[in-house]
Every structure is written in C-alpha cells, then in structure tokens.
Amino acid sequence: MTTVSPTPTPTPTPTPTTLATDTPAAQPAMRLRELVFGAACAAAVRAAARLGVADALGESPATAAELAAALDCEPKPLHRLLRALSCYGIFAERADGTFVHTEMSRLLREDDPHSLRYISLWCTEPWTWQAWPRLEDAVRSGGSVFHELFGKGFFDYLHQDAHESAHVFNRAMTTSSMQSALDVAELLDLTGVSVVADIGGGQGHVLASLLEKHPDVRGVLLDLPGVAAKADPRLREGGPLADRAAIVPGDCREAIPVQADLYIIKNILEWDDDSTRRTLRNVIGAARPGARVVIIENLVDDTPSMRFTTAMDLLLLLNVGGAKHTKGSLVTRMTEAGLVLGEIRPVNAYLHAFECAVPG
User: Fold this and answer.
1) What is the pLDDT at residue 11?
2) Terminus-to-terminus CA distance in the chain, angstroms?
3) Engineered SS bond to 268: which of 35, 200, 211, 220, CB 3.0-4.6 Å?
4) CA pair distance 60, 49, nearest whole angstrom
5) If residue 293 lies in a helix (H) or strand (E), which one and from where to where?
6) Alpha carbon distances (Å) from 260 to 57, 76, 152, 198
7) Any idea what DSSP says for residue 242?
8) Of 340, 344, 343, which Cα lies nearest the Cα of 357?
9) Cβ distance 184 to 353 under 8 Å?
10) Which residue stretches of the chain have pLDDT < 50?
11) Coil, strand, or helix at residue 50?
12) How far is the C-alpha of 82 from the C-alpha of 91, rounded, in Å?
C-alpha cells in the first residue's frame, strides 16, 4: 500500500470537529439521535480499518483524493467517510480540506505499538451485525442467540465456517494480550515465586513477559491443545525461554495438572457460572496451601472503561451466553470457591488484578 506523504505546508494545527453534544446547548434528543446511529460510527471505523486509511495517511496532510488514489477507491465517498470519522476525533479535517492523524486514528495503523486495528475489526465482524438485532431475545431468555442464528456454537462456527473472522479474532486476542502482558509483568511482585502458571493463558504472552523480567523463575502455560500448539515462540522449543517453560495442553475446566507458587487466571472467567466455579475449584485442588492466585479481569463497574466493558458484556451474552463481572460478583465467585481474597489493584485503564491465596 502506498503511503501518502506530500510536501508539508504550514497551516494551523487542526482540532477534531466539535460534536453538537459538546456544547452547553446540547439537547438530550440530539444525543439520542446520535446514539441510535451508533452502527454508522462502528461501520465507519471498520471501513477505515479494512481500507487501510490510517496506514496510507503519512505524517503530512493529505486530501481525500490523494488518499483515494493510494487506496484504489473513490475520492468523494472516502471524503464522506473521513468527515464522519473526524466528528468523533478519528482523523481531523483542516481548513484547507486536507486530513491529518489524531491520537485515535493512529491506533488504526497496523504498525502502531498500541494498535487497535484488529480489535476494531473483531468487534464489527459480519456475524456481529446479525447478532445485535437479537439482543432483545437474549435479554428475554438470558442466553446466547448464536446457535439459533448459525446452527452451532460460537467457536465451532468461527473455526468451521468463518475462517477470516477466526483469523481476525486470533489477531485481536494476540494484540490485546501482548499489550497488557507488559502491564501485568510490571504489576506483579514475584518475590519468593519459583514457578508461575498461566492458566488458560492463550499463547502465553503474559508468561513470557514474566519470565523475561524474572530470570530465576520457571513457568507453565496451560491451555486447550489447539491454542497451546501455537504458543509464543519465546516459550517453544528453540525459543530463548524454552528451558524455563513448560507447555501443557489441557482444559482448565476439567483439570489443572500443574504445581506452582503463583497461578494467573486472566480474562477467562467470562463463561457460564458453572465453568467459572469448576476452574476455580480445580486451581484450589491442584495448588499447595498458601499458593498465590491472581485473577485479572475487565469489570463492568470499572468507571474509566464502563462504556467499553458493558458493551463487551452484552456481546458475550449474545455469542456465548457469558458475562463480564462486577467487582462484587467476582469476589463472590472467588470466596465461594474457597479462595482467600487479598488486595485488588488496577493493572491499567481496563483491567483489575485480584490477589488471592489458597487456604492453608
């Protein structure tokens, strides 16, 4: 893809277009009108991500026509797309009609270290547009609508019928995990820990970050066989951490055949309550008395990210019948399982860590 970088011209620094709702005279009716058109905003973000607009726009201002030539699309519709996104602070339109990056538009670049491109695509995949209109049914029944829509469970559908969507899901989860792994490694004190186990840890980015930071610690990654087979290259044979890492295929809801001083459970207690209880009980059954358990989750009552986490909570209801936790509901699950609750700390703007211990 060609990146547009014409010769810079000195013009005033742009500011994102001001929304009507940002003014003192904003009316609830207009805000509601904007909200019911939320699908248009999500679709615009998806279109920009799919087209690669953020990647094509360089550090210098560019017109819609210049970007359209680089992206092989029509300039007038592209201008309309950019204009709509600029209303939300995604790109900014200058007085001379050119567009420049904003902090948010840079997050749609594939090469940005904090890129949200694949998260943006994942949350707007084709199946989501079929599922959202069924939210009323999910609220009435309290369960997923996915099987009724597609004739099979969510993950079976992804891997059997929607290979591109499965790829987007994997990229989104990998990106998200890699970005939060460093935050987790920075937060956790591993004093006195010889072995750390990442339970349901996906490809093991958190574990790899911890092992890199603590050269005297060994680690175990437990996840489903298909996931474990694609573990972070740093942990696999020939990788720089392989001599201190073990990869164990398994389902934490069935058994956790792992002995460790510290068990990490991150972003997997979003299933039905029975699966959550079984996982926590399996940790207690496997661990020695006094072992540490750190549970890391998004919370729906976590004020800085509530709009995001409550939306994800509704999506979980639709696709797998799961739910995001409140702080209280997660504490209840942990204490019911028999864990002794300690400190609760924020990991970053959207994650909290619950420090627990297996009773002595």
Assistant:
1) 42
2) 59
3) 200
4) 19
5) strand 292-297
6) 48, 59, 37, 10
7) G
8) 340
9) yes
10) 6-13, 15-21
11) helix
12) 7
